[in-house]
Each structure stands twice: as C-alpha cells, then as structure tokens.
Amino acid sequence: FSDLSLLQDSQEDTDGCELSSSVVLLDFVSQDEMLTPLGRLDKYISSENIFNRQMVARSLLDTLRAVSEDERDCVSVLEQIDRLADDSEPTVRAELMEQIPHIAIFCQENRPSIPFAFSKYLLPIVVRYLSDQNNLVRKTSQAALLVLLEQELMERGDVESLVCPVLVDLTAPDSSDDVKTEAMAIICKVAPMVGRDVTERLFLPRFCEMCCDCRMFHVRKVCAANFGDMCGVVGGEATEELLLPRFFQLCSDNVWGVRKACAECFMTVSSASSPDVRRTKLSSLFISLISDPSRWVRQAAFQSLGPFISTFASPSSNAGQFFRDEERSGAQTHSTDAEAVCAQQEPAGREEQDEDRAAQTAESLTADDSQKCLPSSSEEIPEQELFNSFHFWRTPIPRIDPELELLEEDRRPSAPALDRKHLQELLENLEPHIDDPDVKGEHVLTSLSVEDSVTLNLAELNGFMCAVFQRRVTRDDDDSDASDCCLHPEDERKSKQQDVVPQALLEQYLSMTDPSRAQTVDMEIARHCAFSLPGVALTLGRQNWHCLRDTYETLASDMQWKVRRTLAFSIHELALILGDQLTAAHLVPIFNSFLKDLDEVRIGVLKHLYDFLKLLHQDTRRKYLYQLQEFLVTDNSRNWRFRSELAEQLVLLLELYSAQDVHDYLRPLALCLCTDRVSSVRWTSYRLVSEIIRKLSSCSSLLVSFLGELVEKFCHSQKWSGRQAFAFVCQLSIEEECLSLDQFSEHLLPPLLQLASDPVPNVRVLLAKTLRQTLLEREYFLSSVNCQQVALEHTLVALQTDVDKDVKYFASVHPGSTRLNEDAMSTTSSTY
C-alpha cells in the first residue's frame, strides 16, 4: 500500500502541475484575445523567438484585413512591415517576401485611398531583397517580383528607375557567380514584361556582354536558354545587328550544355530573323548543331529541326500551330501518357549530371581540351534507353556472350541461313493473320518454325516485322506506283528536291527515320519526326508532298506504338493540308491501318474521326459506316473512356450521313452504348439517341420505327436502368427540341406516363422531374388541345401522393435547380 500511496501522491502532483500549466496557458491565450490586432503585432514582432516572428510575417495579410476600415491602422501595419524587413533571420525575411504580393493585391483592391502603399513600403523591400546575401531570400524576392509584374501592380516608371538598374548592377563583373547567374535569369524573364524600349536601353547591352562571359559558363547557358525570348522582345533589326553574332559564338561554345540550349531555342531565334538571314546563315549554323560531337546537342537539334523548318513557311500559313502537343494532352484517356512524357525526360537527368561533373573544369579548359570532357557520339547508351516496354511489343532478344556462342556452335547442328526467298515465303504465310485483332506482334513471332527462328538474327527480325507492317499499311493502296521502289539512288534524291527550305535541312529531317539515328542520337527521334511532320508538310505545301510521303509511310509502320500514336492524333490535320485527292490516295490506307492498331493508337484516330471523315468524298466516307462497330471492341474492356469518346464522335458524325444510313448503322451503336456499364458512357449515349431522333425526324417512317424501338428496348426493359434511360431520352428530346411536341405526345408520352407505377423509386423520381421541370414548362402540355393532358395531370397527382418522399417532392414543387445536367445525374446509377 505504501507504493500505491506514493503512486497516488505522484499522480496528484502531476495532475497539479498539468492543471497549473493549463491555467497559465489559458491565461496566456485570454490575454492575447484581449489584445487588438495591432497590439498582437507589436507584441510578437520584437519577440526573441524566431517562430513568433515568422508567424507575424505569415499573419500580416490577416492583420490588414482586420484593420482595413481604419486608414491610420493600415499605415501602422505597413510601417511594421518595414520594420520586420530588417529582421536578421533569413527565414523571417523569406516568409515576409512570400506575403508581399498578396499584401500588394489587397492594398490595390481594398485601399485605393493609399495609392503610395506599394511604392513607399513594399517595393523598396522587394528591390533590397534582390541583392540579399541569403540565397533563399533572393529567390523568394525574384519570384515575388515576377508575380508583381504579371499582376501589373508596379508602375512602369518604378520598374525602369528602381528595379532594372538593380538587376543590371547584380550582373556586374564583381558580383558573385551565383548572384550574376540568378540576375541574368530574372532579366530574361522581366524583359518581355517591360517591353522593347526598356529592354534595348537597359538590358540588351549587358545581355550581349554576358553572352561572351568567358569565366562563367552558367551565365552563358542562361543567356543561350533565353536567347529566343530576348530576340522576340527587341525585334528583327536588333536581333540581326547585335544578337546574332553572339548567338553564333554560343552555338560554338566549348561547353556542350550551352550549345544544347542554343539548339532548343533555335525556332524562336529564327522567327525573329529575316528570311534571307534564316536561309543563308541560320541554316548552315543549324547543320553544325545537328553534327555536333555531343549526343545531347544533336538530340536537342533534331527535336528542334521540324519547328525550325516551319519558320520557312509563308507568314499566312501559321505552320507553328501544328506544334501543339495534343498527343500528350489526353492524359485522362490513357495512363500511359504520363509514362510517355517521363520516357522523354530520361536523357535530361543524365545531361544535368554530366554537366555538373564538368562544371568545375569547364571554366579553365581551352576549346580543344574541353572537348575531351564532352560526351562523345560513341558513348555507351544508358541502360534504360536500350529497352523500354513501350518501345517494343516483345521481350528483347538476350545478348549472348561471343565466346560462349563459339563454344556452343560445335555442339549444335548447323541450320541454313534464311535467304530472301525464305523470308518472303514466311511473310506471305503470315499475311492472312495480320488483320486478326487477336493476333499481336508476339503471336506473329511464335508462328515461325523452330528451324526458321534459330538463325533469324535481330536485324533480320526487325526488318521482317517492319516488312509485315509496311505491307499491312500499303496493301490497300491501289494507286501506289510500283516503279518507285526501282528508283536509282540518284533519281530518288532528285525526287525529294524542292525550293521552299534549304535542301540540307530537309535531308536531315528525312534521315530521322533512319534506324541508326535511334542509336546515335535519341531513342525517341522517330516520334519527334512524327510530331513535327504536319508543320513541315504545311511549310513545304501539298505540291511537295512527294518529298515526305516515304517518310510518313515509314513512320506509320514504325515498331514503336508511340510513333504511330503521334501520327494518328495528327492525321486529320495532315489531311486538311494535302486536300481530298492526296488524302484519298496516300492517307486513307494509313488511316485504315490505324483503325486496326493498338488502342493507344486507335484513340488518336477516334478523337478526330469526324474531322478526318468530313474531308473525304461521300462515297469513301460511307465505307467507314461498316467499320464503326469495331470501335466497340477494345484491348481492355475497362477502357470506358474509349467508348465515351466514340459516343461523342457519333454525335458529330450524324451530320455527315443520310437519315437512312444513320438508322441502319449508327442507331445500333447508340443503343449498344446506352446499355454500357459505366454511367458516363450511358449519359453521353442518351444525348446521342436524342440527336438521332432529331436526324430521323425528317423521315416519318424511320422516326416512328426508332421511337417504337426505344419504347420496346428501354421503357419495357426488365432492368430499371433501361426504364430510367427512357425517361432521360424523353427529357432530352423535349429540352433540345429534337422532335415536334405532336410527335412526342403521340409516340413517347403515353409509355412515359406508364412509368408512374414503376416499382423502383429512382425511375419515378426522374419521371417526376421530367413532368414538372420539362413538360409542364411548355404551354402545349397545359392546353386542352393536347389529348394527353388529362392523363398527364392524373399521373402528376399520383406522383404527388407517392410513398417515396423524393418522388413526392419533385412532383409537388419546382426546385430552384432545374437543369438536367445538375439534377438528372443525381439519380442515375453509376458504376464508377
């Protein structure tokens, strides 16, 4: 018991301490609550606790809001901000700078009577912090400055007289390397905001000087990365007279990171130059970047090649519009999109690592010595680039040790090598199976006999598979000229001649489909070629399509599905460029092959199905009616967005076909989609059905037949979701005026009213909404002329006395929110 007594005494002492602490804390809180906002600000701004001063900086905006009615108190808060700006702790100053843009916006919106608030109290802090010794404070002030400029919170005179001189001074030769680099980066970002005049007078001389900074390659890299933006600000004359000589120097810099930055901004530099300079000077400069010793420079140059070629287009063509990354914008359609972007970023990580390793030595090396530090064109390819599951449809053939292979060679019977004739026979045997949607690349490989596959090396295998897909693409191309394959190399080169862009640039672009480029430049080079092809085609014009046709067909049969996917997303744009005749002859066969490709490729075709088909002749367009049902079959049944996109496209396709064709081909697809297990697909399909009703309303017999089918399949459906779908379609048909009220009253209203006795409350709820919010809004249904008026009133009365409170509510009152897209979906069943 003594131990227990001691434990109890100890517990009482502990409870007493906790109680006294709680009392002190409550007393402390109550004292704080008794203080005014300014009192609390004064109390904690001089606290020795760093955390308290951080909290003061973080709560400045709230304090301003609390005293916003008193102008004198607002000025007091602003004065305290000036006091807090002198805090010795960097984290407090950084926290204050993060709040400056928000405080500035508040002062502008809520205190117009203090016009000097920003210029007197806030702007000096921003300018002072731009040269702060702490890196975090400097970067925070730079970010705040950009926000203030974007929000137009700074007077142009203040920017020119206060901000710009400070930024220029920070790039002086005696500045530290980090400060100089940061200042030049912020100058390049500020230049487009302050305009041409200020940039030419204050920034341009220092920018040109920094481009030649022989001591700091980081500064030169910043200048190179922003060179295009600077050219765009100062205009063509200053670009050619002052900037281009520096650009030529940067393109031959001894640090490969600088040259790579030049390659990446080449398009914008070219856009600011005259056509003569672009053709005579920039073209040869770009060729030197394409043949650069560094693989990363060549990679960036080839990625910029298509955009650079597009700058040769006539100003009215807007070739640059085709460099939208639409194929990557459909991230919600397929989860692989994010992985495709990541795959493109893989080389960049290695690039930054290599550059950091060379950073300490690059400054002191001569041009000749520095080349030893640059990645050579024959350097080993990163392991992650040798194989990626998105690049191939099969497991890569493992490498075999040469010595082991020699040891094993004597133990195995020799097999005859596959000759061209044997490969051709295999190709012909496999041809009938290529169109089978269940046959994939790996199944094609397994169809080879053991003897055949033993001696089939990797190069032969790749060539074989490309041949299979090439034949698949071109087998329907009746107008292809057989003599093309017999062209002499010299004749073939002449067939690619044109006079729109320098021929050397075009030849380099056409070489991007060369398999060796993937090993020596970039594994993604074919996709970059495919992505820029519409812009290049627009630049060359349809009269020079013969220069690009072979390249396009090669890309269309590329083994990487990402390349074909990119083409599929842009084939409608290319069709618009080429016109109906060239499209029918050269694009339709490729379009047909994409229809039978992987879902990742088919989605590109599907998203622009209407845009492509509307460009075709009516007879050609009608052939695709038989193939639309193939879109209902996907590699993955859970890919419901594919079916939702199909429903969206079918709505657009209605205008391209006659009422009879719509009834015969599109109607079955719509009815099938209406029974999809995903509510989002069904919802889109209900709108499709209502639009089909509109399309068929011009033909009485087809309309009556379709409405009768809707009643039979949905109104009399055994599933409550089908009966609910019928109510949806009826509501849409009235709201969107898809058919006349007489036709609705005769064919759809009687079966609709029968749903009042449906055993499922959700169906009756939607019926009540439809009657109250849609039908009774029309004078037609309130008139005695309508033969269904009595039945309509009796049905509404029955719903008002329904046992379900939701049914009773929607039948009795007119809710404030009456739109179909808000209310209707709340009662629909949803799988996801």
TrEMBL record:
GO terms for cellular component: cytoplasm. Residues 326-380, 476-498 are annotated as: Disordered. The keyword Repeat applies. Keywords: Repeat. Gene3D superfamilies: Leucine-rich Repeat Variant (1.25.10.10). Residues 361-379 have a biased composition (Polar residues). Pfam families: HEAT (PF02985), WRNPLPNID (PF15017). Residues 387-414 form the Putative WW-binding domain. This is Protein phosphatase 4, regulatory subunit 1. It comes from the Eukaryota. One of its GO terms (molecular function) is protein phosphatase regulator activity. HEAT repeats lie at residues 163-202, 243-281, 748-771. It comes from Cyprinus carpio. Residues 487-497 have a biased composition (Basic and acidic residues). PANTHER family: SERINE/THREONINE-PROTEIN PHOSPHATASE PP2A 65 KDA REGULATORY SUBUNIT, SERINE_THREONINE-PROTEIN PHOSPHATASE 4 REGULATORY SUBUNIT 1.
